[in-house]
Design goal:
Elements: H1 4-21, E1 36-42, E2 47-53, H2 58-70, H3 72-79, E3 84-90, E4 96-103, H4 116-142
Antiparallel strand pairs: 1-2, 2-4, 3-4
């Protein structure tokens, strides 16, 4: 078991190491669509790459999600076969969002440095595919709002 301070230090080291090992400017929040962002997530038990839809206007949020559902077959076939669509994902805060994500299937813990390299490679490969998909269908996605 780790103290809060040690756990925070390890998390910081994990993300710093990732940035240094794979120095690249990721798309993440720069989609030019409000509440539409790509994220890397990692904790004690799992890691994943996700696209979160958190537009403050619920109608716009639903329209964006529906637009992505229209592209689901393409996303699964050409980019990310393991992608999961979740229209009611609950965050730790209790807030519900729409999330599209790919889970890192290999055993992982942010507290185990021996699992970091596989996770980093998963992050790079998966986010790259998400970005390629987004750039290819950006105009279609933006038509939703």
């Amino acid at each position: 078991m780790f103290s809060k301070e040690e756990s925070a230090r390890i998390r910081k080291e994990f993300w710093t190491s990732f940035g240094k090992s794979f120095p690249r400017k990721w798309l993440l929040y720069n989609t030019k669509i409000k509440g539409f962002s790509f994220k890397f997530q990692a904790d004690r038990k799992k890691a994943f790459v996700c696209l979160d839809l958190e537009h403050p206007d619920e109608v716009a949020n639903e329209l964006l999600y529906d637009q992505l559902l229209a592209l689901q077959q393409i996303l699964e076939t050409e980019y990310l076969p393991e992608v999961i669509f979740d229209d009611a994902h609950q965050l730790e805060s209790g807030k519900y969002i729409r999330r599209i994500y790919v889970l890192h299937e290999t055993k992982f813990s942010i507290h185990n440095k021996n699992t970091w390299r596989d996770c980093y490679e998963f992050f790079v490969e998966t986010m790259n595919q998400f970005e390629l998909f987004y750039y290819e269908y950006e105009d279609f996605i933006k038509q939703a709002i």
